[in-house]
From TrEMBL:
The lineage of its organism: Bacteria, Pseudomonadati, Bacteroidota, Bacteroidia, Bacteroidales. It comes from Xylanibacter ruminicola (strain ATCC 19189 / DSM 19721 / CIP 105475 / JCM 8958 / 23) (Prevotella ruminicola). Residues 92-309 form the ENPP1-3/EXOG-like endonuclease/phosphodiesterase domain. The keyword Lyase does not apply. Residues 40-52 have a biased composition (Pro residues). This is DNA/RNA non-specific endonuclease.
């Protein structure tokens, strides 16, 4: 057969193949119209949806046994820890947490915020719980492994002071006000890390309120993917222990990814030392780091389910460009 004709036939065959793959990807992703990415299964029974296919993603999570691991807010899950996802019937995922049963601590909490689940629907923490916060144990973790709901942190003190620790939310109550049952899940002790009051109610709260403020401005098709936690793995990143021998992180972090209907746009990292000082008047830009830097500090691979080329480009963004892009 003439070589030119053969080349033409090969070209047509390849075009058909690429077209088929494109149609498959479009259908599998729902045409790009969903407000959040990855499986959002209805709770009970265990989720079974097939994760969204990815191209060129060597470090993605293995979601064959847990479909939630394919979601974009998920960092790389460790094989020696347990990932727990809490959900509600009407809104799906409230948040996911990686629990390390050897350390008896959570390593991170991750969740997403979009126009629908950022709505507070007239609720406040006080209106939902007029008789006091509903602190409770996570039903998916042994109670004996968790911090005590009362009396443990209030009898554990920041080094060199008489200031005791508070229950510091990782996924804040304020980010999950859309329903009472979702808000209640934020009070599970697996979503709590010990924080001294001058950090928890000051700088950490300022960071949380900034993230929530961004979420309140989200439009249709916009999503912020969030992963937060404290340092529990490296000896020089641990501040101390509580009276029941639970880890107190020396540093806290946030990793954010903003995505619109066209795709991932920008990332941001916050890194702050757990100090017994009021730094609420500090400009938040002083705590901004690239996701590359945050991964070096924490040992966590954030947003691993993104295609590698997109992940690498956004994670390498310099701090000054991040500050400008996020308006800090």
């Amino acid at each position: 057969m003439d070589s030119d004709i053969l080349a033409l036939l090969n070209s047509i065959s390849m075009n058909k193949m690429f077209y088929s793959l494109a149609v498959f990807a479009f259908v599998a992703c729902g045409g790009g119209s969903s407000s959040s990415d990855g499986p959002n299964p209805t709770p009970d029974p265990t989720p079974t949806p097939t994760p969204t296919p990815t191209v060129g993603n060597a470090n993605k999570n293995d979601a064959s046994e847990n479909a939630y691991l394919a979601r974009l807010e998920m960092p790389k899950a460790r094989t020696d820890s347990k990932v727990i996802t809490h959900t509600t019937k009407d809104y799906g995922v409230t948040y996911s947490v990686e629990w390390d049963s050897n350390i008896r601590a959570q390593r991170w909490t991750c969740y997403d915020m979009n126009k629908r689940n950022a709505a507070k629907n007239g609720n406040t923490r006080k209106s939902l719980w007029p008789d006091g916060d509903p602190w409770n144990y996570d039903p998916d973790v042994a109670t004996s492994d968790q911090q005590a709901t009362y009396s443990e942190l209030s009898k554990s003190y920041y080094p060199g002071s008489k200031d005791y620790y508070e229950k510091g939310h990782v996924c804040p109550s304020n980010d999950r006000l859309y329903t009472k049952d979702a808000n209640e899940q934020t009070f599970y002790m697996t979503n709590i890390l010990p924080m001294v009051g001058k950090f928890n109610g000051k700088l950490w709260q300022k960071m949380e309120l900034q993230v929530n403020s961004w979420a309140q401005k989200l439009g249709d098709g916009d999503t912020i993917f969030i992963c937060k936690g404290g340092t529990i793995d490296k000896a020089d990143q641990i501040l101390g222990k509580t009276i029941n021998n639970h880890v107190v992180p020396k540093y806290f972090f946030m990793a954010l990814l903003f995505k619109n209907a066209s795709g991932p746009v920008r990332m941001l990292g916050f890194w702050a030392e757990h100090l017994n000082e009021d730094h609420s008047n500090d400009a938040l830009k002083g705590y901004v780091v690239s996701i590359d830097d945050l991964e070096q500090k924490t040992g966590i691979d954030f947003f691993c389910n993104l295609p590698d080329d997109v992940e690498e480009q956004l994670e390498a963004t310099k701090s000054e460009d991040i500050i400008s892009a996020w308006g800090l």
